[in-house]
Design a protein that fits this description.
The structure holds two protein chains of two kinds. Chain A is of the alpha+beta class. Chain A is built from nine helices and twelve strands. Chain B starts with a strand and ends with a strand. Classes of the chains: A alpha+beta, B mainly beta.
Amino acid sequence: MQIVSGGVSDVGRVRTNNEDSFRVLEALNLFILSDGMGGEAHGEVASAMAVETVEKFCSNPDASKEDSGVTLHGAASDNWSPQTKILQNAVFQANFSIYQSAQKHPEQRGMGATLTTGWLNESKLSIAHVGDSRAYLLRTGALQQLTNDHSLVAEQVRRGILTPQQAEESEMQSVLLRALGANPEVDVEVDEVDLMPRDVLLFCSDGLTRMVSEPEIAGKLQAETDPGTAAQKLVDLANERGGLDNVTVIVVRVQDDSKGWFSWLRRDSGKKD
Amino acid sequence: MAKLSLMFENNVVKEVPIGNRPVSIGRSPDNDIPIDNLAVSTYHARVYYEGNRLVVEDLDSLNGTFVNDLRVERAMLHDGDSIWIGKHSIKVDATADTAIPWDTGRKAAAPKINETMVLDTKARRDMLQQAAAMGERSQFSPGRMKMPTLVVLNGRVDQKEYVLTNKLTVIGKSPMATVRLRGWFKPQVAAQINQRDDGYYLGTGSKIPTVNGAPIQGAVRLNDGDLIEVCGIRMNFIVRE
């Protein structure tokens, strides 16, 4: 499956430093995004550590397994593909690295990060995440959130305590139930999605979704076919709206696999029904 | 002054005070705490003061050094910690020292609106319980939703029923589709049913499906018993107990 991708990160209009980090590794089909938190720029340290650990781990999973030395408390299901398991392990290791660093450096205590990763193998996308940075899929015009937010308000929605509307208006939106760095172990949520040609993937920190609505995001992704430009336009829109937080956007487009006249036949078939 | 106690089956085998010099641990007899066991490296780890902090450091041992089940290269020690080397544990007695709890002040402050805060397990449970008590009757069991079923009433598809186990369900001709439409001129993605925090939503694909006879405008939340129709296929959305 052919893809094109692009990513942009911006400090926003209010914050003084950018504590988001990201990687778009097209050679590996690996996408990593992290939103750091913690006083005095330690959020930057945490998010940088998170993305670097995942990049290193996934580039060389066998070597990394030796170093990690921590037992993985993974998803209950053993049906996940090997790639999904490696990705989950990478995020787990990122958590431990941040935690360990804060143990060694008391000034870093309290630092943490979200981490959202996507790894594409043929048409299967492995997703592993902790926190409330999101992955979305745009398919035939509909934008669908792929990751569950590990935030208090999202959990309240899942339990029927709040409606999605109430969650969006809640003052406690940024309270997380899970993040990297708080404990030596963390529950990394994983999922697998089969991608189709013309699908568009979006990874973003909450700096985007707090400022721009989902229909607007879907609109921009459909209108702008170059991923880097689309990412920049979304960042610009978030800033136009106030840019209250750092904002990071990664866009991945799955190319159409149609060839020649046969594709014409297939596309036209929609109208005949 | 702090001390280390080498344990064997709840008995103290050897006690070593920690002074200005590092306390060495390993298989070689010239260690301060020698442990004669093959799982232990010749010079396995050492414990020493750094300022007024007590630190354990692994010396590139083969099997690693653990503090309370956690493998470490270098870590701070607190009173009551256990250092595990091979099958041996070494208790840390640091009652004389000033304890430095690592989360001092981190959760004491009230949550600021613009800052992200991470709740620990107990705080998380308490908060969720409070919220549940205040809120309405909970529709879903914590963390997991009932899996709904699509029951096909008529139309050319590959199964009579589909249990929706995934976050994304495609209705179409694509090989990736869950509900696979048969026929030459069916679209790859006719419609889609996607799971969100508060339920399952039916969305358009290349076609606009109807729910209970009405064409949808944008994604709509599905309720138990809804009738969905698209591309000549009619299905019931059922949420079973």
